[in-house]
Amino acid sequence: MKILIIGNGGREHALAWKLNRSRKVKKIFAAPGNPGIADIGTCINILATNIKALVRFAKESGIDLTVVGPEVPLALGIVDEFVKNGLRIFGPNKNASRLEADKAFARDFMYRFGIPAPRFSVYESASEALKYTKTTNKYPVVVKASGLASGKGAFVVATRKEYEKKIDEILVQHRLGEAGKRVVVEEFLTGQEMSVFVLTDGLTIRYLPSSQDHKRLYDRNRGPNTGGMGAFAPYPTNQRVTNMIEQVIIQPTVLSLRDQGIDYKGVLYVGLMLTSLGPKVLEFNCRFGDPEAQVILPLIDSNLAEVLVAVADRQLAETEVKIKNQWAIGVVLVSGGYPYDYRTGEEITIKDRLSARTLLFHAGTKKENSTLVTAGGRVLNVVAVHENLKVAKQHVYTEIKKIQFKNMFYRKDIGNSGMKKMKRKRRR
Description:
Shape: globular
Helix content: 25-40%
Distance between the termini: 50 Å
Strand order of the largest sheet: 3-2-1-4-5
CATH architecture of the largest domain: 2-Layer Sandwich
Radius of gyration: 21 Å
Structural class: alpha+beta
Largest sheet: 5 strands, parallel
CATH class of the largest domain: Alpha Beta
C-alpha cells in the first residue's frame, strides 16, 4: 500500500510514524513533509493547499490512501476533489468540514440539535457586536473568529474595555483576515478541558483515547493561547462522565449530521469543558489534533492503515480499534518568543542518544546543508509512553534535557492535571 500524508507538522510526522509500522504499507509520501518524515518516507514539494497538484501526484504515483493532516485543505474541499477523481482519501468533505471551518455554523448546529454548549451570539459588524456590552456586565467572555485562524482565533476577554478592543481588532482592523469576517461571542465556562476523538464512517463510531491539550504558553495555564504546548492521554474520567459524553454529545452529533444529509467520514475531535453542570462542547474539529495526535496514535494497538481504509470505504463496522492500557505524554519545544516574534534557523543538537522508549516528532524543522535547524514556532514534540503517567512524565522531561537550540522554551507542567485527578480518585 502506498500512502500520501498531507501536511508538514508534528501531527503528520506522528501519522507517518504510526502508518509506517503497518506491514501492508510499502511506501509513504508526504506533501510537503518535514525532515522527520523524510527519515521514513519521501517528501514531495507540493503545498497542502495545492489540491490540483496533489490529485495529479496521487494519480501518477498510484497512491492507495491519502491522509489529510491539517484543517485548511479539508475546508478547501480536498476530499471532494480526490473522490471525484476516484482516489481514496481519509477525512471529511468540504460540507462536513464546516463544523470546524465555520464556528457560527457549528454553534447553530449544536443549538438546533440540543448538544450541550455555552450560550452564544454571532456578529458580522463591530456596531452590532458592541451592542452586546449593553446587555451584560458578566465578564470574562470568549470572543472567537468564526473562520479558521490556526488555533489562534479565540480570546478570553476580562473586561468591557478588552472586549471592545478585541472587536475592533477583528471586525474593524481585520487582523485575522477572512477568518474574522464574523465573530462568535460565547459564555465563559470553567472546569477542566478535555479532548475526545472518535473515528466515524457516518454510520459506525469507534472511540480513540481522550486527551488534554495545554494551550496556554506558560505553566499553570497562564499567558497567551498557542497552537498547543503539550498533551497527555488518556484524560482520566469516571464512567458516568464517559457515558454522558458518548450518549449526550458524540452519538447525537453523528446522528444529527447524517439526518441533515452531511456525509461525515473521518476523525471527529470534540473539545469539551467539564463543568459543574456536565460536559459542554467548546469546539468541533475535523482532523486529528496537534499536539494530541502525538500522544493518541502511540496508544492505538490496531493497524492504523487498515482502520483508516475502513473509514474511507465505510466499513468501520467490520473493524475493531484496540487501545493500549498505557499513558502517553508529549511536550512541545518552541522557539523563544513564540507565539509572537521568534527567530528561525537556530541549530538543533541532541547531546546524547534518546532512549528507545522516546518518540521525537518534528514540527517546525528543516535541513540546511545537512544541519537540522528550527523553522517554526513549535519545533519538536518529545513523547514518552508508559504504564504509569508519573513515570512517563519523569521520562519525557529527562529526555528533553538532551535536546538544545538557542532560546528553546517549553512548559514544565504537562500532565500535572492528570496526576492530580488520579490522586483525588485514590483518596475517594
